[in-house]
Amino acid sequence: MEKPQPLVTTDWVISRLGPATETHRASSGAPATHLVHVAADRAEFERGHIPGAVFADIHTDLAKSGRPAETGSVKRMYLVPTREEVAASLAAWGVAPGDRVVFYDGAGMNRLAIRGYWLLRLYRFPSDRVHVLDGGLTAWAANDGPMTTDETAPVPVESTVPLGELDESLIATADDLLAWSSEAAAPGRPTRILDVRSIDEYLGTDVRAARGGRIPGALYRVFTEFVAPDGRLRTAPDALAILRGGGVDPAELRATYCQGGVRAALVWFVLHEIAGLTEVRNYAGSWEEWGNRPELPVEK
Q: Going from the N-terminus, what domains does the chain have, and what CATH number goes with each?
């Protein structure tokens, strides 16, 4: 049997909305396929979602607020949850060992859904059992997928999913970025860092931290370029062409970043999971960290 891919289609999901649902598992013990609708506002979920889906709040389930020591008194909104917090979210969604999870969103161009995917992969959730619905709710509706406003209560789990230690190959730190910045800052040096924020953020005119600007040596491609007009993610050839069009050598790239590691996760997904650039990591701290640490260099 062909190994399931990270990105799945509406037809793939529809084919699993029958015997592999939580209701079936409750009586038979069979592994379930869980649909997780990620949004910043529960009202989006309540207006309509895929039958059987559960709601995940980007700001409580997939990111945490706080004031870590490295950025002082600044309140940050996109801190990475701990392994224990992620395990608690999985349990709240009714995910048991052996189950499959499919993330999607309705208004986030799937960057919110991909934050969930990246987070599970970060803690070594089995890669063949976590997926993103390509095109999200927009593609689902365009393919006449069923919708509902009814909410399905997750089936309680008897044991939580065992997660692993943080996979350092998927996340970049400020120290990593500082080293790659030193490599990339001089003319003719390798293209290590990709800034995927808006152009005003990149230029430093839209300031969302103590300082505006960019990481020295970072090249620029806005994250929306990696999403096709129909909401589906770009193919591998398209993604590589986008990089090369911005002067980025795909083989040299090491990290993507944005404000809080969410837009950057989308580009990471396209490059790492679709295009096979396995050296690329998501700098999850992103500008929310870098721009609030005065000892780190900034370029405008």
A: 7-142 (3.40.250.10), 174-290 (3.40.250.10)
